């Protein structure tokens, strides 16, 4: 076997090992997310002239969302800049969160603020890191 062939073989073997490890971690993360609570952190950055309207819309959204089945906590936060907001949501399960997303008030909120966004709506789903 030539040196080039041996190097190619080892690169491919390492790539396959990395892929197997990555798939293993992904399946563990997916299993955990389907079994436990879901933390959703969303960053909402709007054009400054829409900051007041966005704050009002976020408060209405938060109030309505707290009534949804499976909602544990919904926090509406603002950074020092008045047009940078953060939503921190805690849901009992992924299913509860997905049901919430399909609610009319959630769809209406997202449609309402869409023209005001200064950057894309940044929503990230998280689970707790457990031993």
CATH-defined architecture of the largest domain: 2-Layer Sandwich
Taking strands numbered 1, 2, ... along the chain, how are they ordered across the largest sheet?
2-3-1-4
Strand content: 15-25%
Instruction: Estimate percent helicity.
Output: 40-55%
* Integer count of domains: 2
CA-atom Rg in angstroms: 21 Å
Order of helices and strands: HEHEEHHE
CA(first)-CA(last) distance: 44 Å
Structural class: alpha+beta
Under CATH, the topology of the largest domain is which? Answer: Alpha-Beta Plaits
Largest pleated sheet: 4 strands, antiparallel
Round the mean pLDDT to the nearest integer and report it: 83
List low-pLDDT spans: 5-33
User: How many β-strand runs?
Assistant: 4
Shape: globular
| Tally of separate helices | 4
CATH first level of the largest domain: which class? Alpha Beta
Can you walk me through this structure?
- The protein is α+β, with helices and mostly antiparallel strands and 131 residues long.
- It folds into two domains: 1-35; 37-126, Alpha-Beta Plaits (2-Layer Sandwich), CATH 3.30.70.100.
- Helices cover 50% and strands 22% of the residues.
- The chain contains four helices and four strands, in the order H-E-H-E-E-H-H-E.
- Helix 2 runs antiparallel to helix 4.
- The longest helix is centred in the first third of the chain and has 33 residues, at 3-35.
- Mean pLDDT is 83; it is low at 5-33.
Write the layout of secondary structure elements.
Layout (H helix, E strand, L loop, with lengths): L2 H33 L2 E8 L5 H15 L5 E8 L5 E8 L2 H8 L2 H10 L8 E5 L5
Antiparallel strand pairs: 1-3, 1-4, 2-3
């Amino acid at each position: 076997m030539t040196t080039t062939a041996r190097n190619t073989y080892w690169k491919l073997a390492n790539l396959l090992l990395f892929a197997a490890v990555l798939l293993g971690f992904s399946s563990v993360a997916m299993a955990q997310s389907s079994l436990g609570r879901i933390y959703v952190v969303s960053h909402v950055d709007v054009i400054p002239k829409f900051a007041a309207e966005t704050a009002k819309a976020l408060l209405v959204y938060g109030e309505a969302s707290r009534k949804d089945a499976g909602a544990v906590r919904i926090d509406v936060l603002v950074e020092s800049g008045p047009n940078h907001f953060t939503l921190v949501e805690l849901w009992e399960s992924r299913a509860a969160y997905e049901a919430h997303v399909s609610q009319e008030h959630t769809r209406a909120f997202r449609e309402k603020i869409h023209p005001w966004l200064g950057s894309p709506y940044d929503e990230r789903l998280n689970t707790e890191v457990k031993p």
